[in-house]
Each structure stands twice: as C-alpha cells, then as structure tokens.
Amino acid sequence: xxxxxxxxxxxxxxxxxxxxxxxxxxxxxxxxxxxxxxxxxxxxxxxxxxxxxxxxxxxxxxxxxxxxxxxxxxxxxxxxxxxxxxxxxxxxxxxxxxxxxxxxxxxxxxxxxxxxxxxxxxxxxxxxxxxxxxxxxxxxxxxxxxxxxxxxxxxxxxxxxxxxxxxxxxxxxxxx
Length: 176
Ligand SMILES: [Mg+2]
Known about the structure:
Elements: E1 7-10, H1 35-46, E2 50-56, H2 58-61, H3 67-85, E3 91-95, H4 111-120, E4 128-131, H5 134-143, E5 146-150, E6 163-165, H6 168-175
Parallel strand pairs: 1-2, 1-4, 2-3, 4-5, 5-6
The chain binds magnesium ion.
Magnesium ion binds next to loops.
C-alpha cells in the first residue's frame, strides 16, 4: 500500500497574506503576501509536505466579491509563487458559506480539511493546520491534525493549539 501523504494546511488571510481588518481582500491589488510566509512555504515543500490552503471566504457569500474575483486572486497568488519558487500551493479549498449557515465546510468545522485529506490521501496525524484564529486550530483538531496558532500577543497557549508561535519564522525553525 502506498504511504499516505503529509500536508501543511494553511489558513489564508493573516498567514499567507495580510488580513484586511473589518473587510475582505476583493482584488489582487489588495492581496499582499506576508514576508514571513515565503521561507516557511519553500521549506515545507522541500521537506515533502503538500501545501494546501483552507480558507473561509464568506465575502463571496455576502456578495462583496464574486467567485470569479476570488479565483482571480488565487491565480494571481499561484502565479507569484510559481515565479518565485517553481511551484505554488498543491490545492486551495475555500468556503463561501456565511457564519450563521452552520456549514460543515466552514471553519471551525473540519469539512474542508476532511475533503483535502480524502482527495490527497493525507495522514492527518503527520499533518499540521496553521492559522491565526482559534477557529483554524479548532477545525484542525476536529480533523485530527496537529495545530499551530500564530499570534504575536498571546503568551498562553489555548488548549486547541498544540503549538503557539509569534510568527511564521518561528514555525520554519520548528520544521528545520
Ligand atoms: Mg486567518
């Protein structure tokens, strides 16, 4: 039997690109990579992890941007990464359902991660969900992955997070 894959599941806003506080990234011009992300992305791909985005995008559900806008942003992101490294994310899962929908796909529920695990034959126990919100690490826990919370200000680790780091440079050190 073929060995299962391992993956790093990346939250998008606040991890790959800067969040827009109180709003949504609506255009590729508003999509700004966080510099810390690049080292970690390159490293985890080089050491054999799949890199997969798991992203709530209810701005689409609210009609603030269209699915086409969202896909344009993602193709811009992928092109940038491919230009820099020769590879981009292996896959992108997003959920456009609204907060109140009770959607199983929307974080803190694990639906998107479970879909990715199934599609890519991933072992959750050797994989990590990395995010800047509690809902990211809750979703990761529910899907059976290890969880990393990024927060510059928290000093005490919440129970749902296996690891708490201040930034992605610290995460890269953890994987080296
Ligand atoms: Mg986030």
